[in-house]
Design brief:
It is a single chain. The chain is mostly helical. It is built from six helices and no strands. Helix 2 runs antiparallel to helix 3, helix 2 runs parallel beside helix 4 and helix 3 packs antiparallel against helix 4. It is rod-shaped, with a radius of gyration of 59 Å. The two termini are 98 Å apart. The N terminus and C terminus are likely disordered.
Length: 337
């Protein structure tokens, strides 16, 4: 302001000097605002990647940037609004310069007024040039808004394509899981059928064992029924008894003690041997039971491994030859393909 007044000190007697100086200040402020808006627009163009300042031109790649479209849209709208306000002020300044020129035409100092009118004409040309720049900035702002909206649409389209691809993959995985579950259900059915067959066979074996047990009970009962009489008959038939002894003579001979001396140790020896054999059989049965339990746990672990491997290696839920070799007894019942 002081620089302008010093430059125009020879025109101090002209009445429109102060309004003209104020108009000059308003123009310089508007010029600075337009310059700042132009710099902001250049920065926004660089962020979107759509600008003519870099050669060769490289478009923006959505996957390689973290561009904030909301911030860009806000800055573009703010810049466009600021440029619009500046345009309004410059147009108002043109009207102000027109009124100043009218007053200068009626001035009583024609030489000074003529010089000031030349200055107002120069300022008017600068304002018109500034308005052209503002129109250019408005078009650039509109173009950048279109670019941002197009980039947002492209990103949304890519996201929709990715979602569709993920949905398709999920559907394929769900279909594969369903097929595997159906195969597992079929395997379970085959296992149940095999278990049912084994149960029927076990019932047949149990029935046969029950009949054998009944026969053995019958034989044991008959043996026990005749055993006392047989024992007594065999014992009395031994020459250890003198059934022809005269009255007063002993019926039992002196050699009867020899029978007990031989029979009792032999009996205890047989009973002891029998008890040892029974104890040995019980121990062997217990060992066999533990071995059977261990084999059952091993088969159960192998079955779990085969199921996990079948679900993990993409074999569509079917048993393989390796599974049969690992000990799956139901593989031969229609499960192995």
């Amino acid at each position: 302001m002081h620089v302008i007044l010093r430059a125009l000190h020879e025109y101090v007697d002209v009445s429109m000097l102060l309004p003209l100086a104020l108009a000059q200040v308003r123009f310089e402020v508007a010029e600075q605002l337009v310059t700042d808006a132009n710099l902001a627009m250049i920065e926004l163009e660089q962020q979107t990647g759509h600008h003519p300042y870099i050669a060769p031109y490289t478009p923006l790649v959505l996957e390689d940037t973290n561009i904030d479209f909301i911030h860009l849209t806000k800055e573009l709208n703010s810049t466009s609004t600021q440029v619009g306000i500046t345009q309004f002020r410059l147009e108002a300044l043109l009207l102000h310069l027109t009124s100043i020129e009218d007053e200068l035409s009626a001035s009583t100092l024609p030489i000074q007024a003529s010089h000031l009118k030349q200055h107002t004409h120069f300022m008017r040309s600068q304002i018109q040039n500034m308005l052209l720049r503002i129109n250019h900035l408005n078009r650039k702002a509109q173009n950048q808004l279109s670019v941002v909206y197009n980039l947002m649409a492209q990103r949304d389209s890519q996201l929709n394509i990715q979602i569709a691809s993920d949905s398709r993959d999920m559907a394929i995985a769900a279909k594969a899981d369903l097929k595997a579950n159906l195969q597992v259900a079929q395997d379970s059915k085959n296992i149940a059928a095999a278990a049912k067959s084994d149960s029927a066979a076990m019932r047949t074996v149990a029935a046969a064992a029950k009949r054998d047990s009944s026969d053995m009970k019958s034989i044991a009962f008959v043996t026990l029924a005749f055993l006392p009489g047989t024992f007594i008959a065999a014992m009395f038939a031994m020459p250890l008894f003198n059934w022809q002894a005269a009255s007063g003579e002993p019926i039992v001979t002196a050699r009867f003690a020899i029978y007990w001396a031989v029979a009792l140790p032999l009996t205890f020896g047989v009973l002891g041997t029998w008890m040892l054999l029974m104890r040995k059989k019980k121990r062997e049965a217990r060992d066999d039971g533990e071995e059977f339990d261990q084999q059952a746990r091993s088969m159960s672990g192998d079955l779990e491994k085969m199921v996990k491997r079948r679900e993990g290696d993409g074999s569509n839920g079917r048993w393989t030859v390796d599974d049969q070799a690992m000990g799956a007894p139901w593989c031969s019942q229609g499960v192995l393909n």
